[in-house]
Amino acid sequence: MEKITIEVSESVANAWNALEEKRKKEINELVSKIISQSQHTKNVDYWEKLREIRKNANERGMTDDILNQILNED
Q: How far apart are alpha carbons 36 and 51 in whole angstroms?
């Protein structure tokens, strides 16, 4: 694996820093999948692909509520 850097708001950075390693790993996997799939879907609507990834994440237990909790944790 290789590390990358992305820019986020201060509140998102603080939320990230407060996360348990297990949650960080789950989010890393989702981001990796989003980026990987976006490379191979030039003719597919980007937002449709994100909806598909979101659905897959929800099916695996990463719900909107869980993601919002992560982002709102202090």
A: 15
